[in-house]
Amino acid sequence: MRRLLLALPFLLAACAQGPTLAQRLTPLVGQSEGTLVAQLGVPVRTYEADGRKFLEFQSTSLVSLPGDPYFGAGFGPGFYRGGFGGGYWGSPTTYANVVCSMTFALQNDRVQSFSYRGSGCA
User: Fold this and answer.
1) Percent helix, percent strand, percent coil in the chain, to nearest 5
2) What is the sign, positive or negative, of the torsion defined by CA atoms of 24, 26, 30, 34?
3) How many CB atoms lie within 10 A of CB 86?
4) Which end of the chain, C or N, has fewer beta carbons within 10 A?
């Protein structure tokens, strides 16, 4: 299960079709703050320093991770459907939140640059 969680970002990236996140965000460079908010919604955080304004947006998704079909498999003594013998059962499907945090730097009310981080940035 641990290996599956560690591989999650790579699995999500492998399933991605179409333009990358950077390609989708690049057209926002040079746009006004109002256009940025109209496209991405209200930012979760803002910060101002050295005449620049930083806006952070977050995207959160819930993904399902299939259970391990071999978890708990055994052939030793145990109760299985009312009988005596080995049992086989897999672990249940689990769910995980994947988050992408995108930060835009603005100067003079115009987007200058952006950065992003997180397991949900595919």
Assistant:
1) 25, 40, 40
2) positive
3) 11
4) N
